[in-house]
Every structure is written in C-alpha cells, then in structure tokens.
Amino acid sequence: MTAPTPATDRADGTDRPPAARFAYDAHTWKEIVHLLLNLPSALFGFVYVCTTLFTSALLTLTVVGLPLLALCLLGARQLGKLERLRARALLGVRVEEPSPLRGAGRGSPLQRLWMALKDPVGWRTLLYDFIRLPWGVLTFCTVLTSLFVLWPVLPFIARGLANVDRAMVRGLLSPSDELERRIAELESDRGVVVDTAAADLRRIERDLHDGAQARLVSLAMGLGLAKEKLLEDPDAAAVMVDEAHGEVKLALQELRDLARGIHPAVLTDRGLDAALSAVASRCAVPVRVEVDLPARPAPAIEGIAYFTVSELLQNISKHSGARSASVDVWRTDDRLFIEVRDDGRGGARLDGGTGMRGLAERLGAVDGLFVVDSPSGGPTVVTAELPWRDRTEP
Fold this sequence. Notes:
Elements: E1 2-3, E2 8-9, E3 15-16, E4 21-22, H1 26-58, H2 65-91, H3 109-117, H4 120-148, H5 154-172, H6 178-229, H7 234-262, H8 265-270, H9 272-281, E5 287-292, H10 299-320, E6 325-332, E7 335-342, H11 354-364, E8 369-373, E9 380-387
Parallel strand pairs: 5-6
Antiparallel strand pairs: 1-4, 2-3, 6-7, 7-9, 8-9
Helix pairs in contact: 1-2, 1-4, 1-5, 2-3, 2-4, 2-5, 4-5, 6-7, 6-11, 9-10, 10-11
C-alpha cells in the first residue's frame, strides 16, 4: 500500500507534498507526531487565550487592563513563532516570519501601547490558538484510534488531517500580505534616507568650516592689515591686497565646488547628458558618456542618477588604475538604467568600504538596485537601476 511521498518545493518557495509516497515513511511519521502533539499544544494555547483575554477584560476599567492585553498579544507572537517552528519541522511548511511589531521602542508609551494593541499578527495568533482546541481533540483521537484500528489507511488519514493543519498555519500564522513586509522595508529605507541626509549636512558644514569659511576669515584679516598699512606703506598694502584677491578666487572656487556637490546648476538647466559629460571631463581617465533618454525624469531621480555616476567616476579616478571608462544611461519600460564600466584592476566589492555600500543603500531607499561585477584583474561593471518617474514641472 502506498500513500503520498515526502514534501517537495513549489516554484513559489512553498512546500507541497507530492501525490504518492511509501506507507509509513519518515514523512508520514512526522505528520503523525505533529497530529498527536496538536492536543497538548492546542490545550496550552486555548488556556492562554482564555485566561489572558478574560483577565484583561476584567481589568479594562483600570490602568492595568490595556497594558496586560498588549502583553498578551506580544506573548501570542511568541506562541505563533513556536507553532511555525513545529510546522516547519514536522510538516515541511515554510512560512515567513511576520515583520517585527511596527513602532516598537519608538514614540511615547501611549503610542507604543496603541501599536501593540493594533498588532494584526498577535490577533491572528490568538484566533489560531482559540479555534485549535476542538481540532486538536479531533486529530489526537483520530490518529490514536487509527494506530490500533485503521492501521492500513492511517497514512492517508494523516495526510488529509496534516493538510488541514498546513492550511491553518499558512492562513493564520503567515505574514498578512506583501504590504506588511513592504511597510517594514520602507521604514528601514526611511532610516537610511534620514541618515544619508544627516551625513550630507555634516559634510557640507565641515566643508564650509574648513574651506570657504577659513579662507574668508583669512581674507578679512589680510584686508584689515592692508587697510592699516595703506598710508604708511602703500607697496606692502598692495601686496596684501593682491594676496587677498587670490584668497577670494580660491574661496569662490571652493564655494562653486560645494554648490556643485549639493546640486549642480548644469543638471537643473540642461539635464543628465550635459551634467554627466561635465563630471566625466573632470575624471582622471577618458570617459565616454552615452545618455539615451526620451525625456528627463523627475528631479529626485535625476539627482540620484547624477550623484551615483559622480561617485563612481571618483572611485575610478582614485582606485581603479583604469585607462578608460564609459557611462551609459537609458530607459527600459518604467526603469532608468545606469551602467558604469572601466578597464581597471577590478576587485571592487559592496562590502569593501562605505562608498559602494552607501550607494547601494541610497538606491535601495527609492526602490532601486545596485549591482557590482568586478573580478580581480577587471573589468569592473557597475549597474544601477532606478524607478522612472515622469517630470511634472515644465
């Protein structure tokens, strides 16, 4: 006699037991053990739900009731985690862990309490534990009886009952939907954007303090000394004014470079083609630039594309040892693609320093991709992908 065979993976990553397998193989025994454990597991979960909900309801008129209910929901999350582990080990069900509780550890105590009380994962786990008791009694009694009475067909019975368990685990203990996981990703990306903006502000402040500001202070002092010597030593005063004039030119150049680092005027006025050509002209190696876009993207996407290429070309100038490089930008459907290639020594990695990793995080924060292909000896090819957003302003 045969019964269905061990579980295999579907193309979508979930597990599906095939149609046939040897009777009483290892998979069948795992299902039998799982079904027998349903009763003690369901009994514990049912007692937990009834006790905590009843106690919380009685104490809702006091300040203790709602915090106790929040703790009950947090405990339910842990029970759900144990059930997912049991289903994975005995039923071969691979269910993703739900996203962590949103807002945990942030905000006021009332905000954290409200987020815990709204937790859909905790409430679904409570529902799972509440409805499991009659099912646990049924599966335990059925399997235990079949072990002595219906031995020949027990594998088929175990398979049918285990499939119901699989459906319950996937329906109630899996993440709500893709939206829940997407929210967690966006919260993480928001943190990356905030950190990046703070780092940029610190860089601008440092550049102003150490560069243009220091030169302007020196310029003011030099002009003051020149003013004092203007009548008594005109020649010395003229020399000081000439030096101050040089300081003014250097300060203006530093301010232009700083402004270009914030947002270059050529990008605003003429778009990516002209802006990237200007960046390429300052690279230490010859760079071919090819921009094939039917229109200009939204300013935010255009800015990210510009600074991504700018930083990559800086890396080529400083670290690659390349003799030539190329930049290609094009649009395919609703995505903007960037490919930066050089014939240098290679060996670039995302984990090799903060530069590449920072670029990957910035692109990831706007639903973009960043891929580095840089074998030792070269060539290095960096591909960036950004969502295309149409430009709305004229």
